[in-house]
């Protein structure tokens, strides 16, 4: 089943990916989502893929683990919705997921 993911960039633009496969960071970089750089290549050692998960998706996506949270703690604008999208593997249950690209610190 195709998995549709919507990224909302800082300027309010929407990038909709219909057949998302891989991590959210891989999907974002493959589709040139502005604000998602993925400088570390997805190994959770930077925060250039910081997103905020829409509240209605928090239960399905889950919270950051300890290592991811440590990296997020270095960011200025984080909250309970903050995740590094390199740590979110796309699964069928995420069909319709909406994430907002966080401002770069």
Automatic annotation (TrEMBL):
Assigned keywords, A-Z: 2Fe-2S, Iron, Iron-sulfur, Metal-binding
Domain of life: Bacteria
GO molecular function term, any single one: 2 iron, 2 sulfur cluster binding
Named cofactor requirement(s): [2Fe-2S] cluster
SUPFAM superfamilies: 2Fe-2S ferredoxin-like
Annotated GO biological process: P450-containing electron transport chain
Gene3D superfamilies hit by this protein: 3.10.20.30
Family annotation (InterPro entries): 2Fe-2S_ferredoxin-like_sf (IPR036010), 2Fe-2S_ferredoxin-type (IPR001041), Adrenodoxin-like (IPR001055), Beta-grasp_dom_sf (IPR012675)
PANTHER family named among the record's database cross-references: FERREDOXIN-2, MITOCHONDRIAL, FERREDOXIN/ADRENODOXIN
Family: Belongs to the adrenodoxin/putidaredoxin family.
Protein name (Swiss-Prot/TrEMBL): 2Fe-2S ferredoxin-type domain-containing protein
Species of origin: Rubritalea profundi
């Amino acid at each position: 089943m195709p998995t549709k993911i919507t990224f909302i960039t800082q300027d309010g633009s929407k990038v909709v990916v219909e057949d998302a496969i891989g991590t959210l960071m891989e999907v974002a970089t493959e589709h040139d989502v502005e604000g998602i750089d993925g400088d570390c290549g997805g190994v959770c050692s930077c925060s250039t893929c910081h997103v905020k998960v829409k509240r209605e998706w928090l239960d399905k996506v889950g919270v950051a683990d300890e290592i991811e949270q440590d990296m997020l703690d270095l960011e200025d604008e984080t909250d309970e919705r903050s995740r590094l999208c390199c740590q979110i593997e796309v699964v069928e249950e995420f069909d319709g997921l909406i994430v907002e690209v966080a401002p770069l610190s």
